[in-house]
Design brief:
Length: about 160
Amino acid sequence: MLKAAFQLQLKKKYIIQGSIFFVLFMIIYTLVDRLNMTYVDMIQSYGLLLVIINIFTNIVMSLLSALLMNLSTTMVELKGKEGKSSTFGALSVLFGILTYGCTSCVIAFFASIGIAFSVIALPLAGFPYKIISLAIICIGLFWMTKEIQNGKCKIK
């Protein structure tokens, strides 16, 4: 069934959907980076290499998140139900916003729901947290492929 799921990704519908998801995730990840520290400030503080790695990581995370969303849609089409791992892409975005996002935004968000705490400066402009977010997406993809691979068709 996994082969059928990947063959469906070549359909026009899935290519368009994946492109839209990719662009949306790129906007989100770039915006979160910008709220944390501009790329110009990041170059001045940490060097050009970190900015290049950050942008490359954004691209990889956006591609994998788009694939995760597309595979979730494929699973609905093939099995008639959504996989449990489809929330991992959104979870990684939420994790990113709450960890390497704009500190003042995070403090204001938590304060609005009654949580007060002090935030320390994140190392390397929050890059280690981006790696954790990437790991969450990879776990979601692994889980989704296992769900599709071990799934049964909706038609018996």
